[in-house]
Amino acid sequence: MSTPLRLGTRGSKLAMAQSGHVAEALTAATGRPVELVEVVTAGDRSAAPVHRLGVGVFVSALRDALAARTIDFAVHSYKDLPSAAAPGLHVAAVPPRQDPRDALVARDGRTLTELPPGAVVGTGALRRIAQLHALGMQLEVTPIRGNVDTRLARVLGPEADLDAVVLARAGLARLGRTDVVTETLDPMLMLPAPAQGALAVECRVDDPDLVELLAVLDHAPSRAAVVAERAFLATLEAGCSAPVAAYAELAEGDAGEEIYLRGAVISPDGTRDLRLSRTGTPADAAEIGKALAAELLDLGADSILGQAGPTGPGTQQFGSTE
């Protein structure tokens, strides 16, 4: 029997679940056994708000383990990855993407429009906070941390102190908890984070056999969408304090398959909200993202990004899938 491949993963219930799905899919497709290796990251050790922890806080320990060869490959929530490539590492596969939309979990089964003025809504992402403010619904929005169960307990538990929380629907789906969703939010109201719902399967460049093996998991439409969204993010050079959102969809057009990319930059208080869209072919995914970002910069997006906090090249937005 082949030696099991060592898959590095964070130890949260959600991270273990999504890594387990990847391990099962790889074994089913190739016959290679896979063992999960838990790696504790700086983000897991800290109780600070996610956007204050810095870029790649859920990623660096996994990448260090890859470099040290204590694991063979890693699974990340793609939106946690810094947009700059990591030297010596390669995203060998982007498996089929889960629903990238955000989800509302509210008391009494309420939808977003049914929440009364003053309702307290918790979320861990500045992007969501900014867009909730931009709706003008007079909601009280508060930053929260914790895994999925911890966040849900603040709405549904016996000591609930929030009226609602907003989470990534993908995380709830991977944990089999979509039954608690009271509304899946339309991207017209709440545009997702770049690469939300997607996983990145990463390994070392100097392991070509594993690069080839992992490629069996790659889903071309998911990769194209993520490439467009992350090119948009990278061109904006958005830092971890910047509320940046992007969502690419693939559909059949008159001349074949097309990407439809929507992007937004929103001030933290929601008073400035720049949104544009652009279409093109999947082969041009990166150029579509770059061009859309350039259009938003021409409209003044850089002043919003400067207002949101320090920015720098190659940085990702904020947060963990949870």
Provide the domain count.
Answer: 3
Mind telling me the CATH class of the largest domain?
A: Alpha Beta
Helix and strand sequence: EHEHHHEEEEHEHEHEEHHEEEHH
Helical content class: 25-40%
What features would you describe in this structure?
The structure is a single chain. With 322 residues, the chain is α/β, with parallel strands linked by helices. The protein has three domains: 5-96 and 197-219, Periplasmic binding protein-like II (D-Maltodextrin-Binding Protein, domain 2, 3-Layer(aba) Sandwich); 102-184, D-Maltodextrin-Binding Protein, domain 2; 224-308, Porphobilinogen deaminase, C-terminal domain (Double Stranded RNA Binding Domain, 2-Layer Sandwich). It is built from eleven helices and 13 strands. It has helices spanning 13-30, 42-45, 50-53, 60-67, 126-134, 148-156, 169-174, 208-214, 220-236, 285-298, 301-308, and strands at residues 5-9, 34-38, 73-77, 89-93, 102-106, 120-123, 140-143, 164-168, 183-184, 199-204, 244-253, 256-266, 273-280. The strands form three sheets. It has a five-stranded mixed beta sheet with strand order 2-1-3-10-4, with helices on both faces. The two termini are 36 Å apart. 49% of the residues are buried. Mean pLDDT is 88; it is low at 43-55 and 309-322.
